[in-house]
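Dear support,

I submitted the protein below through the web form. The confirmation email said the job was done, but the results page showed an empty box. After a refresh the structure appeared. I'm attaching both so you can tell me whether what I see now is the final result or a partial one.
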Amino acid sequence: MVHSVLERLDPSHIVLDPQPYIYSTEALDPDYYAELAAAYPSLETVAGSGPLDNNRAYLRQAREVIDNPEIPAIWRDFFAYHTSETFFREMIAFWRAALDRVYPNLDALLGTLVDQATIGLRSRGKEKAAENKSADVMMDCQFGVNSPVKEKTAVRGPHVDDTHKLYAGLLYFRLPEDSVEGGDLVLYRAKEGSRYFQDGRRDIAERYVEPFRVVPYRANTLVMYLNTPRSIHGVSPRAITPLYRRYINLQCECYRLTEGEFFPVQRDALGRIGSAVRRTLGLRDA
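What the results page shows now:
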C-alpha cells in the first residue's frame, strides 16, 4: 500500500511568512519509511558509475522509474502515486488556503480552473520539451543524491526555484551511518533593500539574505513549500565524507501559463545582462 507524504500532515501547520512552507520530522509511518529506506537505490543507480563531481546533485526522474523493473516495486508505486492526478488534487486541497493568498489569480495563470487542470508526467528539457506542454500541470518525483564530498562545500546556496514551478517537496533518506555535519535545508528571508537575484540560476548572495529556519537533514523529515519570489532556500555546507546525501524530490511545474511564468525574477544589473546574453545565445536560465 502506498502512503501519501501528506497523510500525517495538518494544513493548520503551514507557515505563510516570510514564505509558505511546512515540514515534519516523522513524515511517513516509520515501518513504511523503513521499507522504502531499505530499498533506496544505490548511488550508482541514481548518479551513474563514472567519476562523480564533488558534492553535486544527481537526479533520476519518475519517467525513468515507474516502469523500470530494476527499481523495487515499493518505489515504483510511490513514484506513480506522487505524480498522479489523485496526488495533485490532494496537494491542491491541502494548500488551498495558502494558494488563495499567494496566487489568488491561479486559475487565470493556468488558463483553466485548477480543479479541472490536466495532469502529465514531466520530461527533461522544461519548457523547450514539447511533451511538457501536453498538459496544464506536469508532475515529477525524483531520486536525488548529492555525491561524496572531497572539499567542504554547499551543493547550492540561496536561490529560488524555476519560475514555472508551483510547489516542491524534499523527503530525506539519510543513511544511518551518516553523522557528517551539514546538508540541512536553510530557509531565508531577503534583507530589506537588498539587491535581488544575480544570475540566470536565480541565486542571491548570502549578504543579501538572512536565515530564519534550518530544516535538519534527518531521516524521514519532509519539507514542502509553494514556489514564490520569497521562497529563498539553500543547503548548508557538508563536511568531507565518502557518504552521499539521499532524498526524494517532489515537484510540479506548469509550462502553459498565460503569463509565461508564475512570477518574474527581479535581477540586479549584472544578472539582467547575463540573462540577456543567454537568451541571445539560445540558452535558458537554469
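Response: this is the final, complete result; the empty box was a page-load delay. Residues 137 and 254 are 5 Å apart (CA to CA).
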